Amino acid sequence: MANSRLKNILVEEGVLQSKIAVLAGLSAGTVNKATNGKRNPSPTTKAKIVIALNRAVEEVKGTAGTYEVSDIWPAEKKG
39, 47, 53, 70: least CB-packed within 10 angstroms? Predict the structure, then answer.
């Protein structure tokens, strides 16, 4: 399973996994597994994480986050 870039983005933006979990309404375990590439989240969960990430970036930096799902989970190439 491909690892997402979520972990690096959280570090760069100064956002904690626990903050994402709260804002997204997800369990800490779900966010942890997505962050560490141990699970490929459903499209709905990916969307919740990205919305929460953008809200958290705004809270931390005072500027709106502009991340999209494809920034974190690029489409996997078939072949």
Answer: 70
pLDDT for 28 = 97
pTM of the model: 0.88
- Residue 53 neighbours by CB under 8 Å, 6+ apart: 6, 9, 10, 13, 15, 20, 65, 67, 72
**What is the spatial distance between Cα 22 and Cα 28, in angstroms, rounded to a whole number?**
8
Contacts of 12 (CB under 8 A, 6+ apart): none
CA dihedral 15, 64, 73, 50 (to 10 degrees): 70
Q: Within 13 Å of residue 17, how many CA atoms lie on the same side as its CB?
A: 13
Q: Please name the residue ranges forming H helices in the chain.
A: 6-13, 17-24, 28-35, 43-61, 69-72
Structure-block tokens of residue 18: 């626990």
